[in-house]
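Changelog entry: the M23ase beta-sheet core domain-containing protein record was regenerated in this release. Current contents:
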Amino acid sequence: MPTVYRSSKRLSGRRRRTRVLRTLGIVAAIAVVAGAALWLWPAGPRPLFQLPVACGEKWQLGTYPGHGADDVDMFPMSGQSWGRPVLASYGGTVVEAGINGELGGRTQRNPQGPRGSGGGYWVKIDHGGRWTTVYMHLLEPPMVEEGQDVEQGQQLGKVGSTGDSGAAHLHYEQRRGLQTVESWFDGAPSGITQDDREYTVLRTSNNCTGAKP
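Regenerated structure tokens:
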């Protein structure tokens, strides 16, 4: 009898382990299917994004080799970059607001200070329909917080050089699902696409409505 009891106990343990493994396998399969659905699910119509800077200002949009396809670096055509208002391109909900990577030590008083990593102070906004925008290298902690609803033109922060940044500027992206795509502003393509060479374009902001900072 003792031998039979021990054998039954071992068999029962194997069955429990088998059930657990099957359950884990089902959960993993569901996760894979859900991830694939999220990736393949079509995005909604592109929102009417505007340049994330003050109404009427002219800015230089550029990229360079290794920067990342469709990533945009922005510099004002007049005045200094440091401290310029960064505005929401379109209304939505803040899903990230804080520090991406390491801040480094570049400031307006010490622009050649130690370089950081990543995006520094940054904000990411969900606009619905699987569209998001990203704003990086902000001067100070963002002026908005996660979960906050923002309007087009609302100030998110100020232009700076935190993170992996060589000079004060705004790094900006428009993302469709998980993919960064060419940024459009006021219904027209920006002209910044591949990063196979260094080039720039000039655009004037029509971000003329929205909340005050």
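Residues 117 and 124 are 17 Å apart (CA to CA).
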